[in-house]
């Protein structure tokens, strides 16, 4: 299963839950007042999923540990198991992560060679760059409080390639060669995508870009 699919599924389920609770509450079916717990589960779960995803991503274990710890702390605080102000630990945790990344040189955006053929790119609180060479038949890009840059100008993009994207408070930039036509199927929720590509008149190959941009953006050029 693609890592960005895990984040997307969790976020989608939480949005559905929020809508269902609001609808039932407005219709008088239930009387829901535990919003502190709901948002604790939402934000805690989001950080936890992001952290677990980072733990299994090459070169991102530091962020994985920190984000997982933040997510667990938010959840425990929401249910009054511990008394923690998340804003008092979030930004210090981010600073610690940046410091450790610098100290141990675990900079995810530099950990892969520019010719890396990995199809999955995940950026959580950092930046990820990729310039694949050779055949490229698609992949997945995720940006959660971070950014991803994918440059395909040196790659041989196959016709019908599919790129799955997901952003949450982050951004993704994709640079395409001029011999492909982009079919943009990305949906935006308080975010959006922009296609600035100018394909050559003889271009016939098609690349499908699909996914969601939530409080974030995608630029294809």
Explain what this protein looks like in three dimensions.
By secondary structure, the chain is α/β, with parallel strands linked by helices. It folds into two domains: 3-104, no CATH class; 120-220, no CATH class. It is 37% helix and 33% strand. The protein is built from four helices and ten strands. The protein has helices spanning 3-26, 35-55, 61-78, 86-104, and strands spanning 120-124, 127-130, 134-144, 147-151, 155-168, 171-175, 180-189, 192-195, 205-214, 217-220. The strands form two sheets. The protein has a five-stranded parallel sheet. Strands 2-4-6-10-8 form a five-stranded parallel sheet, with no helix packed on it. It is flat and about 60 Å long.
Write the layout of secondary structure elements.
Blueprint: H1 3-26, H2 35-55, H3 61-78, H4 86-104, E1 120-124, E2 127-130, E3 134-144, E4 147-151, E5 155-168, E6 171-175, E7 180-189, E8 192-195, E9 205-214, E10 217-220
Parallel strand pairs: 1-3, 2-4, 3-5, 4-6, 5-9, 6-10, 7-9, 8-10
Helix pairs in contact: 1-2, 2-3, 3-4
């Amino acid at each position: 299963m693609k890592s960005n699919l895990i984040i997307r599924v969790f976020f989608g389920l939480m949005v559905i839950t929020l809508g269902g609770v609001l609808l039932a509450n407005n219709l008088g079916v239930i009387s829901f007042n535990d919003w502190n717990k709901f948002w604790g589960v939402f934000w805690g779960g989001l950080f936890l999923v992001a952290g677990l995803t980072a733990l299994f991503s090459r070169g991102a274990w530091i962020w994985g540990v920190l984000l997982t710890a933040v997510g667990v702390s938010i959840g425990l605080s929401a249910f009054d198991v511990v008394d923690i102000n998340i804003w008092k630990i979030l930004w210090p945790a981010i600073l610690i992560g940046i410091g450790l990344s610098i100290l141990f040189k675990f900079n995810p955006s530099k950990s892969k060679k520019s010719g890396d053929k990995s199809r999955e790119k995940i950026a959580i609180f950092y930046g990820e760059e990729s310039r694949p060479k050779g055949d490229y038949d698609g992949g997945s890009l995720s940006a959660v409080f971070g950014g991803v840059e994918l440059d395909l100008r040196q790659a041989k993009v196959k016709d019908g390639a599919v790129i799955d994207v997901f952003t949450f408070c982050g951004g993704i930039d994709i640079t395409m060669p001029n011999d492909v036509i982009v079919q943009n199927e990305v949906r935006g929720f308080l975010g959006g995508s922009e296609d600035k590509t100018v394909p050559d008149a003889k271009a016939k190959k098609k690349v499908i870009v699909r996914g969601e941009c939530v409080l974030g953006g995608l630029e294809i050029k």
